[in-house]
Amino acid sequence: MAHRxxxxxxALLALLVLSLAAPSIAQDDxxxxxxxxxxxxxxxxxxGGFCAVAVDAVPGSVPSKTRPGFFCEPGFRESTVQPGxxxxxxxxxxxxxxxxxxxxxxxxEGGCTGGPPPTGPMCGGGLRCAEGRVCSSRNTCLNLExxxxxxxxxxxxxxxxxEQPSGCVAVAPERTRQQPNSR
Length: 183
Prior knowledge:
By secondary structure, the protein is mainly β.
């Protein structure tokens, strides 16, 4: 008899723990953003409190010739050295897979050389960025023509959105506000 009571107590405690640990909303209907808010099912949680429908590729993307289901966003092309990797369209592709901005040449050991002397802002470790570049939240020089800084150490292409809490995601252009979770 006491054994049955202990079993019931354990079962009740387990239910209590599971109910406290479970999200406050049904996972089938929404996406829990992990910040006390949620987005509709099929949406991605974006930085800034927004939601957007997740898509396989942003409009205008070009499908990979070698990797089914993979796309390069507008302004990018698929690498011939590393299929399945996209590089900015105006960049020169190096044999080692590195890509150099227009006007620069590939170095055999990786990296790029040439081009005008860097006159942009100073960035991590005494590195000066090329003109028109900015220093990112990762202390790297960033070409804003192709990339955006999410401000949390994540760098996304211009066509992708900054996902919450980090990462990049392809989404439709329309945005809605995240809604508060109910308890």
